[in-house]
Design a protein that fits this description.
This protein is of the alpha/beta class. It has two domains: 1-42, no CATH class; 45-244, Carbonic anhydrase (Beta-carbonic Anhydrase, Chain A). Helix content is 45%, strand content 11%. The chain is built from ten helices and five strands. The chain has helices at residues 3-7, 15-29, 33-36, 54-69, 105-108, 128-139, 155-166, 174-191, 196-213, 219-224; strands at residues 93-97, 116-120, 145-151, 229-235, 242-244. The protein has a five-stranded mixed sheet with strand order 2-1-3-4-5. Strand 1, helix 5 and strand 2 form a beta-alpha-beta unit. Helix 8 crosses helix 9 (196-213). The longest helix has 18 residues, at 174-191. The protein is globular and about 50 Å long. The two termini are 39 Å apart.
Length: 245
């Protein structure tokens, strides 16, 4: 039971109490996005411009990546529009990216500030916090595309392979990363791939794409209503090119 449900004593909660507790109540009850929307009223833009479709968003990403690979980017003035972005943001795509310092999604897709809603974690997997962020990006900010973006020579995936094969013990909270990526390594092992690291990296992307497509109650509904497209990509560290997987 959510905190609001447990603590309220009034049979008719105030509007302020509803706005504070409504989001948690709606999520817990599996209510539709139409019911959840009012709970985000204070943070949603007052007049959001019409967003691009998921297909068009993907086209823009891939065109931007082609410019990046060719070293002919459009984005050169990073101060442009800074003041205008103070009051609102309208990202046309969301990215689940590895935290690797060699990969910067805004640069890789030649997009300026405010264009991409990026969730980053070593190993580019989706946990509860990441899922909530992506739900916010889709429901409140209007992003109609999510790309799970892995990359070549991923240290998190490589470490997971080492743990799986050699039963290596890692310190601190690192085992939580391993547990999240382990299913991809096990899937790649079953394929008996010649390049286990590459196969596991791609499997990790695909598993998280499916996780997002079926994540209830928000993302799965938006996918079913064709208001959200979820895809996977692989960034080549050597060339900068992103390939869909």
């Amino acid at each position: 039971m959510c905190q609001f449900c447990a603590t309220t004593r009034s049979p008719v909660p105030s509007r302020r109490a509803f706005l504070k507790g409504g989001a948690g109540l709606a999520l817990a009850g599996g209510l539709t996005a139409q019911v959840i929307d009012p709970a985000f009223a204070q943070s949603a833009p007052a007049a959001r411009p019409a967003g691009v479709s998921g297909e068009e968003a993907l086209k823009q990403l891939m065109e931007g990546n082609a410019r990046y690979v060719a070293n002919t980017p459009n984005e050169r003035d990073f101060s442009a529009g800074r003041a205008a972005r103070v009051g609102s943001q309208y990202p046309f795509a969301s990215i689940v990216s590895c935290a690797d310092s060699r990969l910067a999604p805004e640069l890789a897709f030649d997009q300026g500030a405010g264009e991409l809603f990026v969730v980053r974690v070593a190993g580019n997997f989706v946990n509860e916090d990441g899922l909530a962020s992506l739900e916010y990006g889709a429901l409140v900010l209007g992003s109609q595309l999510i790309m799970v973006l892995g990359h070549t020579n991923c240290g998190a995936v490589s470490s997971t392979i080492n743990v799986v094969k050699n039963n290596t013990q890692l310190p601190g909270h690192l085992p939580s990363l391993i547990d999240a990526i382990r299913p991809a390594v096990l899937a790649a092992q079953k394929e008996e791939a010649a390049d286990l690291l590459k196969a596991a990296t791609i499997a990790n992307v695909k598993l998280n794409v499916e996780k997002l497509k079926t994540a209830t109650p928000i993302l799965s509904q938006r996918v079913a209503e064709k208001k959200l497209v979820v895809v996977g990509g692989l960034y080549d560290l050597a060339t900068g090119k992103v390939s869909l997987v």
